[in-house]
Amino acid sequence: MKKTPAFIIAFMAICVALNYVGSNIALFLRLPIYLDTIGTMLSAVVLGPIFGMATALISGLISWMTTDIFSLYFAPVGILVGLMAGLVLKKSEPKKARLFWKALAISFPGTILSSLITVILFHGITSSGSSLIVQALHGFGLNLTASIILVQIGTDYMDRLVVVFIVTLIIATLRLRLPRWRTIL
């Protein structure tokens, strides 16, 4: 099966929808993870890092225009996640133990960037459920910047770990259920 322009556009549209649905579930349930990079990582693995980055940008713009004004400010984090996922995750099925390290490699650069955005622009108050944890830590006497960085490290890693597992399950399922996708995946 060849990656035609129609396939690429349709696959990216599905990935943008996955990002949108995941981010809104996390937003409305005030989860301390974000779930907004499922489609970004899937697109990066199947189509390559550039398409993962484009998926993140489109998703950030759509979320910003519809449900979450903060998503535009964090779009660069999604773009960085798309780049890292395309470089770190390969089409081969990785061992589960390696997924923990791959999630760390994907999340680390984005964690630095998201921490800076949260500290400089928002002073710890965003639309995500992690803001509640930041405010609780700050209320217990921890410096606000330290609270933000500490929470960002934990929530970003947990989010990326969950998303990496979801993406590997999606790819494994597609390979199993749709044998002709093996050439793409």
Topology (elements, then pairings):
Elements: H1 5-29, H2 38-46, H3 49-66, H4 75-88, H5 96-122, H6 130-139, H7 144-177
Distance between the amino and carboxyl termini: 10 Å
Number of strands: 0
- Average pLDDT works out at 91
Poorly predicted runs of 5 or more residues: none
Shape type: globular
The major β-sheet equals:
none
Count up the helices.
7
Q: Could you tell me the radius of gyration in angstroms? A: 16 Å
Give the structural class: mainly alpha
Tell me the strand percentage band: under 5%
Strand/helix succession: HHHHHHH
How much helicity do the residues have?
Answer: over 70%
Summarize the structure.
The protein is mostly helical and 185 residues long. The chain has helices at 5-29, 38-46, 49-66, 75-88, 96-122, 130-139, 144-177. The protein is globular.
Describe this structure in words.
The protein is an all-alpha fold. The protein has helices spanning about 5-30, 40-45, 50-65, 75-90, 95-120, 130-140, 145-175. It is globular and about 55 Å long.
Features:
185 residues, mainly alpha
